[in-house]
Every structure is written in structure tokens, then in C-alpha cells.
Amino acid sequence: MAQQAECTVFGYPPDCLSLYDGGERNDGVYVIRPDGQTSVNAFCDMSNGGWTVFQSHANGDVDLATASWSEMLAGLGSPTGDHWLGLTYIHLLTWRDSLIYFDLVLLNGSQIYFQYSNFSVGNSSTMFKMTVGEGYQSNAYSYVEYEGFYQHDLMKFTAVDKDNDMYYANCALSYGPWWHRNCGIFGSFNGNFHDMNFWNVPGEGRVYVKKTMIKLRRR
Ligand SMILES: [Ca+2]
Q: b/e for 168-203, b at 16 or more Cβ within 10 A?
């Protein structure tokens, strides 16, 4: 395949941005090596400048909501369908200053985005603790209550069989695996579809998310 040949040409691309910088311009699945050794298939959004997609949820062909801790570490699903790249890779991809971008489609058809800077995920010894910094951008500020993803800053990762959140129960059991704090909003992108994130939109009432793509890129 073409992308295999390109890997040879450009060595071992750690992420989609390095492939983009090497001239790749087609959206699709590429082999990346986040640590320079271990290869993993990832969907690359080249149309917007080389983003590495680490989560997509649209079809329900993979049950992300009940995925185990070990599955969330290693990844599950296919990069062309419902997919979670894996925490071990997300950690390796974010050791350099990275942006995180939520590309969301609501049940009413609206396409909205949220971008945050300084997104970083620690290693397994930190329980993949997540940090996110200043620089919030969106085309839908009014859609998010409780400051969105900032609510999850400094949280460890929680899955159905590994409770690292601050709530008395396990938030993943209700909202799917995530960097949960108190089971709040902006935390159910891996949840069941009927429970996915929702926001109260002026004039429209409660609007649900039906499709997600979450990606990252070095700055
Ligand atoms: Ca808990």
C-alpha cells in the first residue's frame, strides 16, 4: 500500500503530523510509531493539517462503553469505524505540547467543535492522568455547561473495571470510560449512544451528540 511505502521513505513517523509534513495529503489510515518502534494503525486527518485521530464513535459497531481497562490501554475497534487508539499511544503522542480537538455532530445535524491546548496524558504509573491548558476555542461556546473539558483537568482515567474517579461510584459504569471527575458533562463520548453528551441549547432545549471524532496534533 502507498502509505507503507511512504513509511520507508520517511522512516518511522511518530504521528500523522510527521506524515503530513512529509507530503501526505490524503485522509485515511496510516501506520504510525509513537515511540519510534511500536507500530499502530491510526486514522489521519490530513485535510486539516495532519491530526492523529484517537477516538471515533458514530456507528456503535464497537462497544466502547463497556471496554475494560486493558482494552482502553491497548485500543479497540478499527480506525475506519468506531475506534479508540489506546491510552498507551495517546500518552506517547502527547509528550510534546499538543492540541486536542473535539469534532462533534449533534442529533439536530449541527457540527460543532471544541479545541483545547496543552493536552497531555501521563503514563500507566499515573493512571494516564490528563492535563489540559489554556486556549479554548469553539464555534459553540453556549453549548457547554460546567466549562467542558476543563472539568476533567488532572483526572486519572477510569474504566468499568478500574475506578479512578472522584465520585463515590464508578462513572464509567454510567458514561463509559473517560478521564472522569464526578460523572459530569463532557465525559460520555465513549458512552452508550442514547447517553452521549448533551447540552442545553437556547431555543432548542436539550441536544444530544450523535457522532464524535477526537484528535490531537503537536503544536
Ligand atoms: Ca469512583
A: eebbbbbbbbbbbbebbbbbbbbbebeebbbbebee
Ligand 1 centroid to residue 42 C-alpha, Å: 31
* Amino acid at the residue 2: A
pLDDT at residue 194, rounded to an integer: 61
Residue owning grid cell 482502553: 72
Among residues 51, 12, 101, 7, the alpha carbon closest in space to that of 218 is found at 51
Rounded to the nearest whole angstrom, what is the distance from the C-alpha of residue 172 to the centroid of ligand 1? 9
Per-residue model confidence as pLDDT tens digits over 63-76: 999 999 999 999 99
- 49 CA from centroid of ligand 1 (Å): 38
Q: Give percent of the chain above pLDDT 70.
A: 88
1, 83, 134, 214 from 116: Cα distances, Å: 34, 21, 7, 11
Q: Locate the domains of the chain by residue range.
A: 2-218
Percent residues over pLDDT 90 in the chain? 67
At 190-206, the pLDDT tens digits run 988 666 677 666 677 77
2-218, CATH topology level: Gamma Fibrinogen; Chain A, domain 1 (3.90.215)
